[in-house]
Amino acid sequence: MATNVTQQGLGRSPPRHSDFAGLEPGSAGGRHSPRRGLARLEGAESLERGLGWFSIGLGAAAVAAPRAVCWLSGLRSPSLMRLFGTREVAAGIGILMQRDRAPWLWSRVVGDTFDLAVLSVALARRGRRGRAAAALAAVAGVTALDVLAAVRLTGSRAGRTIPGVSGRADIYLERSIAVSKSPGECYRFWRSFENLPRFMQSLESVRQLDERRSRWVAKGPMAARLEWTSEITADRPGEELAWRTLDDSGAANAGSVKFEAAPAGRGTIVRVSLHYSPLGGTLGAGLVRLLGHDPQSRIREDLRRFKQVIETGEIATTRGQPTGRRSLFGRVTQQWGLTS
Amino acid sequence: MKANVWYGRERLRVENVPDPKILNPRDAIVRITSTAICGSDLHIFDGYIPGMLPGDILGHEFMGEVVEVGPEVRNLKVGDRVVNPFPISCGACFFCQQSLYSLCENSNPNAWLAEKLWGHSPAGLFGYSHLLGGYAGGQAQYARIPFADVGPLKVPENLSDEQVLFLSDVFPTGYMAAEQCGIRQGDTVAVWGCGPVGLFAIKSARLLGAERVIAIDRFPARLRKASQWAEAETLNYAQVDVAEALEVMTGGRGPDACIDAVGMEGHAHGAFGGYDRLKQALMLESDRPPALRQALTTCRNGGTVSIPGVYGGFVDKIPFGAVVNKALTVRSGQTHVQRYLKPLLELIEKGSIDPSFVVTHRLRLEDAPRGYRMFRDKQDSCIKVVLKPWADVPTVEADEVTESGRILH
Asked: Which of A240, B59, B221, B364 is in the most buried spot, having the most CB atoms within 10 Å?
């Protein structure tokens, strides 16, 4: 789960919700969380970087001297070798330069598989068998390392298992938006929980049970209906609201919304932080992401809608306006991606 | 109702679609009496604007009569005659409060999409791609206007549609372009492109006190308009070297301000022209900027380059060194139309300007696809096409046709 904690939170450590049973925000989270970064510098990271440079080195050799590399590996086609080289260089650059390396490592694994197939064919032919066999062994070794690094990285991306909450990943998110209303107005609007479904898209209803507890109903991924009870853990009028869930309902979360006065009367910075387990574990999170409704942008969109409702009294929409004949692609795009 | 619908590059169809409905409390519905084709619509027609979906209704320059208002619209009533600004603005956000209406934070339902391309999203616009909200446009018989308590301006009955229609876009756009030049007494302003926006920029520069205005184009009819209507000096870039001519005309110093009213589909002769066409065709560059390049290099030291022309994405070989080393000020933006509506209406009422002079062609809405082609190819000296959504038969009387105007049926 690629969360932009550093981007939005300006590199601060996420706050701890000590009352959120057994969860340590800093230890799980996205791979850009500060602690994760430090831990990853040792070991795993050096393997990835090594593979990156190896990829570039081998690729450069194959591009610059395709005949020599062909001779060494018992292959015949220098032009094919050049293509291999280009692919290797691209994968290497991807691994070294991109924030998200996992896809590039997986691209190496795919490439390795292809190379193994080509070398196997070469091995089956007569002549140059010795060198082809040696090359096959070498590629097999590198493949093992690639798989190791890719699996390790993907595993760490998906998040770790939280003790006591089996099989679910743990995520910490923070998002903010500037609103041209006073902190008091923003707080009061948010504190009236019946307002929340107006701007939180997945929320169906919130019912106040007593002073501190409320009952929430939401539509989860794949049309699943979720209900949970939430408790207010901090309530400072005009400044902050914090909550946590009380029951383990598959929607365990703790979070807060802070209303910070922007300088020179520029309204309020509304800052939401959320620490939670995605519905249905990693598979669920993957599906949610696939549908373009990853939690990060969901919070961003919900905050945008909060701003629209409180500033203008309505949410901008085009749903229901006339159009010409939409193609299937157009209808799907509009349904899933565009237009709230 | 009938509407002009986009189905792809150079594929428009005028067809029947459902009537618009009130969707939000601050909406209004207008019955459109006049609507125009904008130069920026041609970028959509030519397929250079990303984020269009087949089935989108085009058009952002329109006016008409209010036929329905939402419960929160208190300043308009059914029957009011209004002209509508092309940006959709809430009037309440950080930017609207500073009169930067085209940057409204609350009117683009697809803001996240625009953020992917530009970092932040501007306001939603009528009929101008899903990047900018995907709102149905006004080349139709009716349109829904969101935030109708902020945008539309009531116009007096004694002014004709064509006198006020261009308050929706091209007049304020040309005016803002000139205003951004910070014109002082004695200034020379050079304007690239003598389409409607360029012509309004030229006229506005005059109104704002420019000593000389130099109009640059390659179509004699357009240059003639510029010189007749706004006393501009003219340069035909197909015949003269513009950079050299500007040097000679300004004592070697260059124009005090330059306005690029051309935008992303500029034409140029020679190597650079071919280079841009090739790169754009290969999708290595989204926009062709020859006018912008020339404006930056010919502008005087410490001068201002104002860009009302539309650019959508990426341009190449921009002489940014000229910006730094000549201490240029570069200003641009989609027009904050709402800011200019009242002052410019006053200019029209006083008789300082009659915007209807740009109109060369009046067509029925059904003829919109033909109108786009004529406008793009400058057939028949076309400068501005006004569409009449309710004209079933050729309605425009012969005596309403201006000197260069013509009705085509």
From this structure: B59
CB distance B90–A312 less than 8 Å? Answer: yes
Q: Which fold has domain B2-169+337-407?
A: Quinone Oxidoreductase; Chain A, domain 1 (3.90.180)
Question: How far is B19 from chain A, CA to nearest CA, in Å?
Answer: 6
DSSP for A61-129?
A: HHHH-HHHHHHHHT---HHHHHHHHHHHHHHHHHHHH-S--HHHHHHHHHHHHHHHHHHHHHHHSSSSH
Touching check for A335 and chain B: CB below 8 Å? Answer: no
Q: How far is A5 from chain B (nearest CA, A)?
A: 18
Q: Answer for the pair B155, B82: CB distance below 8 angstroms, yes or no.
A: yes
pLDDT tens string for chain B (409 positions)?
999 999 999 999 999 999 999 999 999 999 999 999 999 999 999 999 999 999 999 999 999 999 999 999 999 999 999 999 999 999 999 999 999 999 999 999 999 999 999 999 999 999 999 999 999 999 999 999 999 999 999 999 999 999 999 999 999 999 999 999 999 999 999 999 999 999 999 999 999 999 999 999 999 999 999 999 999 999 999 999 999 999 999 999 999 999 999 998 888 877 777 888 888 887 777 788 999 999 999 999 999 999 999 998 888 889 999 999 999 999 999 999 999 999 999 999 999 999 999 999 999 999 999 999 999 999 999 999 999 999 875 544 433 444 444 444 3
Nearest residue in chain A measured CA to CA from B13: A324
Q: What is the pTM of this model?
A: 0.77
Q: Which residue, among A190, A189, A192, A194, has the nearest Cα to A206 in the 3D structure?
A: A194
Residue spans per domain, chain A: 41-157, 171-312
Contact A169, A282 (CB under 8 A): yes
Identity of the residue in B54, B72, B144 whose CB atom sits nearest the CB atom of A330: B54
> Does A19 lie at the interface with B, CB-CB under 8 angstroms?
no
CB–CB contact A308 B136 (8 Å): no
CB contact under 8 A, B90 and A311: yes
Question: What are φ and ψ of residue A292, in 5° steps?
Answer: 75, 10
| CATH class entry, domain B171-332 | alpha beta
Residue reference for tokens 């070469």: A122
Rounded to whole angstroms, how far apart are CA atoms A152 and A159? 11
**Cβ–Cβ below 8 Å for B55 and A307:** no
In this prediction the ipTM stands at 0.90
Q: Where are the beta strands (DSSP E) in chain A?
A: 171-179, 203-208, 213-219, 225-236, 240-245, 253-261, 268-276
The length of chain A in residues reads 340
Question: B155-186: string of b/e by CB count within 10 Å (b at 16+)?
Answer: beeebebbbbbbbbbbbbbbbbbbbbbebeee
Whether B312 and chain A come into contact, CB under 8 Å, resolves to no
Do residues A236 and A244 make contact, with C-beta atoms less than 8 angstroms apart? no
Q: Assign a CATH topology to domain A171-312.
A: Alpha-D-Glucose-1,6-Bisphosphate; Chain A, domain 4 (3.30.530)
Reference A37, options A47, A48, A26; nearest CA is A26
Residue A248 CA to residue B356 CA, distance in Å, equals 69
